[in-house]
Design a protein that fits this description.
Bound molecules: FE3-S4 cluster
CATH topology of the largest domain: Aconitase, domain 3
Structural class: alpha/beta
Pathway: Carbohydrate metabolism; tricarboxylic acid cycle; isocitrate from oxaloacetate: step 2/2
Family: Belongs to the aconitase/IPM isomerase family.
Strand content: 15-25%
Number of helices: 25
CATH architecture of the largest domain: 2-Layer Sandwich
Distance between the termini: 24 Å
EC number: 4.2.1.3
Pfam families: Aconitase, Aconitase_C
Cofactor: [4Fe-4S] cluster
Strand order of the largest sheet: 22-26-27-28-31-30-29
CATH class of the largest domain: Alpha Beta
Number of domains: 3
CATH superfamily of the largest domain: Aconitase, domain 3
């Protein structure tokens, strides 16, 4: 189930016919994105043209990738599905749970000790169910996927938002929640709203200090962090084909920072070079045979305005290197114009760290170009002002860059070479003992996200995003407003010196090499593998199937919380320190709704227990109701459950005994997640009825036994004084989803069907 050339041949074999049919149905030439989408329909050959931004469509992805933090709950759920093997090639990558502190060897040892049970669990589940397993230290999920699995024209989903990185090799690759991944692992379709399409035409050519990173930093400035929402961004033009494959990966990777569904590029020679360099001659040969389907029809790129919903043009020859930040990746400043801006805004000009790596910028090309700057610091006798940290993207990149003397250059500058893992990119950075009280400072990195506290937990760290080569230059100078194109530095001999433009190799001149890539193939027959989870583990807990909620349970329900205003998946299931419990439903349930604001007192995590009249935390109060066998209702405002697709936000309330969530409107993915977990997700027919809900209310769904598609449900609200209101609630359950409810969850139904 690792790399599968037959699967790729199968995709290509049917692509021509499907693309032709789609072209006929759509009635005009097709973009690359449309070709990939229409050739991955769940039902096979297209039957109708879909409306972009409107129609929900079932797809059949070719691959799934999961990282260690999200894979825990995904695999715990998959184990409930009653399947012997995953239905689609799947890999698990251990990269998020490794802290960067003392350097690769010590940090990896520490992670293997502190997260041993999680890694062992992921390894054994992978072995049992036919999933490829990449051990801690093997690399960062998206770099490993690009090197081993991504292929032009393919469709992939992954339980990580930067799954989109694989667009650099011409895929449509999309980040999803664990519940979606489980559906596909179990052999079901994956649903997505047919995306809108944004075309980005790249003219000119990158040169000098400007890098692929600057392209996406510019796009982020233009579109902002929301501008790509619901859309696929398709890059094309001479500027696109002149860039390396891994450079394209960087651009697609940060598509997540503009909210895009994904980003992609048409198949070209850079992709062919990359495939051949990474030992996939056969994929390149197969891709070459169907080249015309792996890029848009020629008319599209000639007249993009006619085929995309929005078109942006960027001339790479005029693009300037950028520094984006702090605190948001779309706040762009041209290198060389920082002094005034930083001073006005109080951003510290002194830079304390330069970090190079993450899934965004950790390719051989990235490290070689950054090292050409580092080498100049040695040659020109410059003392680096900031500290350097390097995270190679994979063991293959690490091994090859070590062999080629690239890492040694950084080491001579006293750089810390961290594990091939996420590290500081996800806050796994042992920079401070007490980050909350750490001083104000600036850092520069080549990662993708720079929200407050993201890298080191310090709210006063101002993180700026730049290309690896610019990160190296600024770290050497130790100043945010250093412009290597014009500024000089004083060396140890007191001489003024300048840094020359970066140079580097797109691909290693002597080829990639690796001794132990950290991959473990699963057993052909894993039926004998025992998955061990200690009963007293605080990190992992095997799931019990949810018991179906009966019509009688929907009588006499108590109000748990009436949430006021914004209630995102973060308010429902917080991240941060709770990340360590992602594989233990009962423990992570102790954060359920603790971020939601109680509409009756405007406080968080402070609700009335109707049984005692006392106030307490939401999870504790809910557990009291559960003990008494009383189900509860959560009431919410508009767009309830927006944010991430994390299924914990639905599983936790379900686990604790919440039966119904009634809101003015739902974020769609969360609504589906509630349905999948066998709960009732309802909306007020008249949203002003939200105001009728009082703190001591008891609820009866009077027609619960008649739950059917398109039939509203009637909610009787009994107030403390005995008065009643009758509220009509709507729902969007179809027949299949009502079966999920009746069975207790979608997984229970899958299991029953597989029995
Ligand atoms: Fe890891 Fe950061 Fe990428 S957390 S997957 S390196 S975005």
């Amino acid at each position: 189930m690792a790399f599968d050339i037959d699967m790729i041949k199968g995709v290509y074999a049917s692509m021509g016919e499907r693309v032709e049919k789609a072209r006929e149905l759509v009635g005009k030439p097709l973009t690359l994105s449309e070709k990939i989408l229409y050739s991955h329909l769940w039902d096979g050959k297209p039957e109708k043209a879909f409306v972009r931004g409107k129609d929900y469509v079932d797809f059949a992805p070719d691959r799934i990738a999961c990282q260690d933090a999200t894979a825990q709950m995904a695999l715990l759920q998959f184990m409930q599905a009653g399947k012997d093997k995953v239905a689609v090639p799947t890999t698990v990558h251990c990269d998020h749970l490794i802290q960067a502190k003392d350097g690769a060897a010590a940090d990896l040892k520490h992670a293997n000790e502190t997260s041993k049970e999680v890694f062992d669990f992921l390894g054994s589940v992978s072995n049992k169910y036919g999933i490829g397993f990449w051990k801690p230290g093997a690399g960062i999920i998206h770099q490993v996927v690009l090197e081993n699995y991504a292929f032009p024209g393919g469709m992939m989903i992954g339980t990580d938002s930067h799954t989109v990185n694989a667009g650099g090799l011409g895929m449509v690759a999309i980040g999803v929640g664990g519940a979606d991944a489980v559906d596909v692992m179990a052999g079901m379709a994956w649903e997505l709203k047919f995306p809108k399409l944004i075309g980005v035409k790249l003219t000119g050519k990158l040169s000098g200090w400007t890098a692929p990173k600057d392209v996406i930093l510019k796009v982020a400035e233009i579109l902002t962090v929301k501008g790509g929402t619901g859309a696929i961004v398709e890059y094309f033009g001479p500027g696109a084909t002149s860039m390396s494959c891994t450079g394209k990966g960087t651009i697609c990777n940060m598509g997540a920072e503009i909210g895009a569904t994904t980003s992609t590029f048409g198949y070209d020679e850079s992709m062919e070079r990359y495939l051949r360099a990474t030992d996939r001659e056969d994929v390149a040969d197969e891709a070459n045979k169907v080249k015309e389907h792996l890029t848009a029809d020629p008319e599209v790129y000639a007249n993009p305005e006619q085929y995309f919903d929005q078109v942006i043009e960027i001339n790479l020859s005029e693009l300037k290197p950028l520094l984006n930040g702090p605190f948001t990746p779309d706040l762009a400043t041209e290198v060389g114009t920082m002094t005034d801006k930083a001073t006005e805004n109080g951003w510290p000009l002194a830079v304390e760290w330069g970090l190079i790596g993450s899934c965004t910028n950790s390719s051989y090309e990235d490290l070689s170009r950054a090292s050409s700057i580092a080498q100049q610091a040695l040659d020109k006798k410059l003392k680096t002002k900031a500290e350097f940290g390097i995270n190679p993207g994979s063991e293959q990149v690490r091994y090859t860059t070590e062999r080629d003397g690239i890492l040694e250059i950084f080491e001579k500058l006293d750089a810390k070479i961290f594990t091939n893992a996420c590290g500081p990119c996800i806050g796994q950075w042992g920079r401070y003992e007490d980050p909350k009280n750490a001083p104000k400072n600036s850092i520069v990195h080549s990662f993708n996200r720079n929200f407050a506290k993201r890298a080191d937990g310090n709210p006063n760290t101002h993180a700026f995003v730049a290309s690896p080569e610019m990160t190296a230059a600024i770290a050497i100078a130790g100043r945010l407003d250093f412009n290597p194109l014009t500024d000089t530095l004083i060396n140890e001999d007191g001489e003024e010196v300048m840094l020359d433009e970066p140079t580097g190799w797109e691909l290693p001149p002597k080829g990639f090499e690796v001794k132990e890539n950290g991959y473990e193939d699963p057993l052909e027959d894993g039926s004998g593998v025992e998955v061990k989870v200690a009963s007293d583990s605080e990190r992992l807990q095997l799931l019990e199937p949810f018991v179906p909620i009966k019509a009688s349970d929907l009588q006499g329900m108590k109000l748990l919380i009436k949430a006021f205003g914004k209630c995102t998946t973060d308010h429902i299931s917080m991240a941060g320190p709770w990340l360590r419990f992602r594989g233990h439903l009962d423990n992570i349930a102790n954060n359920t709704l603790i971020g939601a604001v109680n509409a009756f007192n405007q406080k968080t995590n402070f609700v009335k227990n109707q049984l005692t009249g006392e106030y307490g935390g939401v999870p504790d109060t809910q557990r009291e109701y559960k003990k008494k066998g009383i189900m509860t209702v959560v009431v919410g405002d508009h767009n309830y459950g927006e944010g991430s697709s994390r299924e914990h936000a639905a599983m936790q309330p379900r686990h604790l005994g919440v039966a119904v969530v009634i809101v003015k409107s739902f974020a769609r993915i969360h609504e589906t997640n509630l349905k999948k977990q066998g709960m009732l997700a309802l909306t007020f027919a008249n949203e002003d009825d939200y105001d009728l809900i009082q703190e001591d209310d008891t609820f009866n769904i009077v027609d619960a036994a008649e739950f059917a598609p398109d039939k509203p449900l009637t909610l009787e609200v009994v107030h403390a004084d005995g008065s009643k209101d009758t509220i009509i609630t709507n729902h969007s359950y179809n027949d299949a989803q009502i079966k999920w409810f009746n069975e207790g969850s979608a997984l229970n139904l899958i299991k029953k069907q597989n029995a």
